[in-house]
Amino acid sequence: MTAVNENRCGWAGSDPLYQAYHDQEWGVPVYDDRKLFEFLILEGAQAGLSWITILRKRENYRLAFDNFDPQLVAGYEEEKIAALLANPGIVRNRLKIHSAVNNARRFLEVQQKYGSFSAYIWRFVDGKPRQNSWRSLGEIPALTPQAEAMSKDLTRLGFRFVGPTICYAFMQAVGMVNDHLVDCFRYSEIQKIGEGRAPESPRAGYAAPGSL
Q1: Which of 53, 137, 171, 209 could form a disulfide with 176 if both were Cys (CB 3.0 to 4.6 A apart)?
Q2: Strands 130-131 and 177-178: what pairing?
Q3: Of residues 31, 51, 200, 206, which has the active-site annotation?
Q4: Helices (H), 51-210
Q5: Torsion of CA 166, 167, 173, 177, to 10 degrees
Q6: pLDDT at position 209, please?
């Protein structure tokens, strides 16, 4: 449990759920494909909404989307989609729900082609978390060239709800960048975690972003 006088990034506010997410998850490098798929779906669901809204619905999403198993989500047909649209525990937006199913199918295609989604997606930061050094929330960008490249390539592959701003939020969430402020207690902890992970090697024949 974090001490109450511990410095946090200001966006974490005073909501215990938001603080727990900040303290335990945000910015921690994620290499597990199912976890990456979860954040891909949740970040897409957030579009136009606040992240705390999605956090409060997260457990409902896990139940509704079979614990974010991309193989199962990819198989959803109209009856299941209709049930999701009637589920008050999630964001009942038809485009977002259809995009989640579509993205699951594209996710499986990426796994098949590149060995894992993790190997594919981490190439946008050369396989290693980028360590930033922001001193104020106003310095943190809404998107970066890497996020724009990711968005462009995911769109080329058929993914939806993957604009550059969504992609950068995804990158922040899964630790592809360390965007904790330098005076936040998590900054140095995340930095150490990131430095301790060797880049994951993609399947032979994989072309790095920019050469596609």
Answers
A1: 171
A2: parallel
A3: 51
A4: 51-64, 70-74, 78-85, 94-114, 117-121, 145-156, 164-173, 185-195
A5: -140
A6: 36
Active site residue 51: yes
Q: CA 42, CA 124: separation in Å to the nearest integer?
A: 20
Domains and CATH numbers, the chain: 25-195 (1.10.340.30)
For residue 131, what are the CA distances in angstroms to 12, 29, 136, 139?
Answer: 20, 12, 15, 14
Indicate which residue of 18, 26, 38, 43 is catalytic.
Answer: 43
Decide: 199 and 120 in contact? Cβ < 8 Å.
no
The Cα–Cα gap between 51 and 137 comes to 16
Residue 35: the pLDDT is 98
pLDDT means over runs of 10, the chain (212 residues): 68 96 97 98 95 97 98 98 97 97 98 97 97 97 97 98 97 98 96 70 34 30
| Per-residue tokens: 15 | 């909501």
Per-residue DSSP letters for 170-201? HHHHTTSEE-S-TTSHHHHHHHHHHHT-PPPP
* Other CB atoms within 10 Å distance of the CB of residue 10: 10
| Residue 79 and residue 51 in contact, taking contact as beta carbons nearer than 8 Å | no
